[in-house]
Amino acid sequence: xxxxxxxxxxxxLDLYEQGTAYLRAGRLPEAEAALRRHLExxxxxxxxxxxxxxxxxxxxxxxxxxxxxxxxxxxxxxLAPLRLNLGLAYFKQREWGKALPEFDLFLAAQPxxxxxxxxxxxxxxxxxxxxxxxxxxxxxxxxxATVDIGLATAYLRLGRPAxxxxxxxxxxxxxxxxEVLLTVGQALMAEDRLEEALEAFGKARxxxxxxxxxxxxxxxxxxxxxxxxxxxxxxxxxxAQHPESAEAKFTLGSAxxxxxxxxxxxxxxxxxxxxxxxxxxxxxxxxxxxxxQAKRNGEAVSCLEAxxxxxxxxxxxxxxxxxxxxxxxxxxxxxxxFAAVKRISAKQLxxxxxxxxxxx
Length: 360
What we know:
mainly alpha
């Protein structure tokens, strides 16, 4: 609560100063109200716009914060801190592609800023630009455990589980970090040491029951071991804990579709996932397959076309799309897709032969 002298002082300030004082004191609703009233009379005051963006960001209204930051930048384009704030708001919104250029613009002005460098590395990881993410995390070492976890995760996604484990081993000895245990479990999964991975995940859950993606990975082990009911239970738990997770919606929807579960629920979950990530190749494929099985070929086509556009090497999607085209009498398009299947199959066979051939 404010003391009486402070309340009297605030009453003497103009609306902008009141809003700024409320922001500093953590009185966010009052700060927002004062700044909005000030901006009604002074819509070109970029400092007020920036402060309103900060208020909205702290209230977790990131979409609203983005609007205010962009207005402020239109008036003060060279103010680097606004780029960092805008990038962070996009990051919180999971709009990775929009966050990255803002971090780059900020770092062009302040190249040694560690928070921005780490946010940029995390953004590259989310964008699946794993070589760049690994390079960015490596440049931040030595640092705290979050940097090592980020680097180990990048190595895992690059198919380098041994490199990931060498980074995590010193952290694992402490055994007090659920994030480290989660990453170690992923490394063990990559090496097919499933029960050891499940043990690591179990330790992580005891430390942090609602750790994001933890139950996704536990469910994946159950699924690979054909324990379907246990897998679905874990994925339902993940979605209950993290209802905004597009990956949880996709995973549970796909599992229900493949295991003979509730098809209406499966379709709803897959569509919800695609609303968040419309270019998710596997989600488009699974929804297209579900629609094809329900003889809704016209709807299936658009999903399968989206799958192959997102991943041109997705052999199964090309094959199913060709089959649906053929069922619709669109034979030239069907032949094009079957030709793609042959091309991809030949490429994969060649890669296998190269892998197992004797060195010259």
